[in-house]
Amino acid sequence: NEGSLWGGRFSDGPADAMAALSKSTHFDWRLASYDIAGSRAHAKVLQRAGLLTEQELADMIAALDKLEADVLDGTYAAAQFDEDVHGSLERGLLERAGTQLGGKLRAGRSRNDQIATLGRMFLRDHARIIAGGVVDTLDALLGQAKAHPYAPMPGRTHLQHAQPILLSHLLLAYAWPLLRDVQRFVDWDKRAAVSPYGSGALAGQTLGLDPNFVADELGFDSAVYNSIDGTAARDVFAEFSWITAMIGVDLSRVSEEVILWATKEFSFVKLHDAFSTGSSIMPQKKNPDIAELARGKAGRLIGDLTGLLATLKALPLAYNRDLQEDKEPVFDAADTLEILLPAVAGMIQTLTFNTERMADLAPQGFALATDIAEWLVRQGVPFRDAHELSGAAVQLAESRGVELWDLSDADYAGISEHLTPAVREVLSTEGSLNARNGQGGTAPSAVAQQIVEFERQLDSV
Ligand code: ARG
To answer: Where in the numbering of this chain does the Argininosuccinate lyase C-terminal domain appear (predicted)?
Structure first.
């Protein structure tokens, strides 16, 4: 069987069905450059251990460079009969270095430690790309927050009007979790920066190779301390997948808000033409498809994570072929976010807010009732009583179909002697917002401080 890595003890080649099931080149080929980088490092460590001469090393590196160039320009590609990227690239190396020299490279390594290492290299690179896309999305949210420093809007709980808030405060509330996702990647990378190369099939190698040399060559901080762990663990994959799923969920929440805001009933935002779509039948339509795809793709990212965890559940150590199923979920997660994030960032960056309508609605629906209660507390009324009195004002206003500020001084006095005309100082959106000026509050001064801290943390990731 041409190109096979394991023919020696077999008298027959694999059945077609066996080969078809086993094959992974259609998805692991994208690891080819990482595989070749690993081979360069491995050739160097073989030379350092006295297993390749200087000349052999130079010839091996030249052959690997040629192989990589041929892979990148498509001159060399996986063949139908190649089982996986490792086997195919060994075949390509033998063609370029000759079987005598090329046949020396596999000493002291296994596809088990190779694939575990290449996977981490791929994930570390893509964690950086994804984090860059999240940072662009954060810049879009932050840009909109800074462009609207004093824009009030209705704050909601249970989707019902609750208390007035600043638009900038809400935009930042969608930004903080995404900033934490970037911080999670930074922290995750400490665990990902450990190289399994040198673990061999499971028990290490007998050839006196220095795994830390290889680790350093490949940009890792160190080599693993347990070869079984090195070949069998995939928690670093699962954690990556969890972070990508969380990013999907975080994007889906802001997206859902954009979908609501863009409805006729809300009319809080206008989507930019370039970041929305039309209908094939209804000429008037302008649809928030980016936000809907973000919402939908969150499900897919969660599926990638749960599929991977299910593969790992109860899997005995060390390597089992089940682990070949570790790659497609994380590849899919990376591909999904790398295509989604630029679209979401563009959509957010180009939103036009109807700040007048949002400000008009901010105090409506009795959203200042808490302010009346807390004003009464400042006059010495116990909160339980204050809550009741403010509730009575709401009931009266609701029965008349008016808002709290439409009630007369006499109406308030009729509810309680404590409700003097001075209560009107909190019966405005501005008064309500300005009063919430402690750290984390929605007052313009507090939000300005929040932005300083947000930018400090963003700058340091
Ligand atoms: N292609 C395999 C994977 O992706 C690596 C090869 C290990 N195969 C083996 N029979 N030990 O996990």
So the answer is: 366-434
Report which of 107, 127, 122 is spatially closest to residue 32, judged by C-alpha positions.
122
- pLDDT by residue (tens digit) across 20-67? 999 999 999 999 999 999 999 999 999 999 999 999 999 999 999 999
Same domain, residue pair 258 and 329 = yes
Rounded CA separation 277/260 (Å):
16
What is the residue with the minimal CA distance to atom 12 of ligand 1? 324
Instruction: Indicate if the alpha-carbon torsion angle 75, 81, 87, 92 is positive or negative.
Output: negative
* Within-domain flag for 65: yes
Distance 29 CA to ligand 1 centre (A): 13
Centroid of ligand 1 to alpha carbon of 222 (angstroms): 23
Query: 200 with 260, same domain?
Result: yes
pLDDT of res. 2: 57
Question: CA 189 → CA 57, 76, 133, 221, 311, distances in Å?
Answer: 31, 32, 17, 10, 23
Residue-wise over 283-312: b if at least 16 C-beta within 10 A, else e? Answer: eeeeebbbbbbbbebbeebbebbebbbebb
Q: Is residue 177 part of a domain?
A: yes
CB–CB of 3/84 below 8 Å?
no
71 lies in which domain range? 16-107
Rounded CA-CA distance 97/202 in Å is 28
How many domains does the chain divide into? 3
Give the active site residues. Answer: 158, 279
Q: What is the pLDDT of residues 201-240, one digit of tens each?
A: 999 999 999 999 999 999 999 999 999 999 999 999 999 9
**CATH classification of the domain holding 375:** 1.10.40.30
Q: How far is CA 58 from the centre of its chain?
A: 41
* 322 shares its domain with 369: no
Q: Whose CA is nearest to atom 6 of ligand 1?
A: 111
For atom 3 of ligand 1, which residue has the closest CA?
A: 324
Is residue 111 in contact with ligand 1, taking CB distance under 6 Å? Answer: yes
